[in-house]
């Protein structure tokens, strides 16, 4: 199983990024997918999740700014991040859950700074 995250980088406050996570080794369409983040000195937190049935949920602080989506034909989950703030700075991790199995990607750094 491999979850390959990409799309992180350095962006100014108010900017945007789109993260992608390409999955292999799982039956993607049956998996609930999520994006987590971990800032230095803080616990990892769920930013956004999307179920196999395309229902989504968000961390309160990103509602209205971030959008999670999935493309089952490409085995890929996305996180569109708009109006980025310095407090969004963290390593972002892709997560997959299904039937009691859980997998993590390697993380991609997002830095919001002027």
Topology:
Elements: E1 2-6, E2 9-11, E3 17-24, E4 32-38, E5 45-50, E6 56-58, E7 66-71, E8 76-81, E9 90-98, E10 101-104, E11 108-112
Parallel strand pairs: 2-11
Antiparallel strand pairs: 1-3, 3-8, 4-5, 4-9, 5-6, 7-8, 9-10, 9-11
* Structure annotation, total helices: 0
Low-pLDDT sequence parts? none
Structural class: mainly beta
Mean pLDDT: 96
Total strands: 11
End-to-end distance, in Å? 37 Å
- Kindly state the percentage of residues in helix: under 10%
**Beta-strand content:** over 45%
Rg measurement, Å:
13 Å
The secondary-structure element order is EEEEEEEEEEE
Q: Tell me about the biggest sheet? A: 7 strands, mixed
* Overall body shape: globular
What does it look like?
- This protein is mainly beta and 114 residues long.
- It is 0% helix and 54% strand.
- The chain is built from no helices and 11 strands.
- The protein starts with a strand and ends with a strand.
Can you describe this structure in just a few lines?
By secondary structure, the protein is mostly beta strands. The chain is built from no helices and eleven strands.
């Amino acid at each position: 199983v491999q979850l390959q995250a990409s799309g992180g980088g350095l962006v100014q406050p108010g900017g945007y990024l789109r993260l992608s996570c390409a999955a292999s080794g799982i039956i993607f369409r049956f998996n609930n997918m999520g994006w987590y983040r971990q800032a230095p000195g803080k616990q990892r937190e769920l930013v956004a999740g999307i179920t196999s049935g395309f229902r989504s949920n968000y961390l309160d602080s990103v509602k209205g700014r971030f959008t999670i989506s999935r493309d089952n034909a490409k085995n890929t989950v996305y996180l569109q991040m708009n109006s980025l703030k310095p407090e969004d700075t963290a390593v972002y991790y892709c997560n997959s859950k299904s039937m009691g199995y859980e997998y993590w990607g390697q993380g991609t750094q997002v830095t919001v700074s002027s």
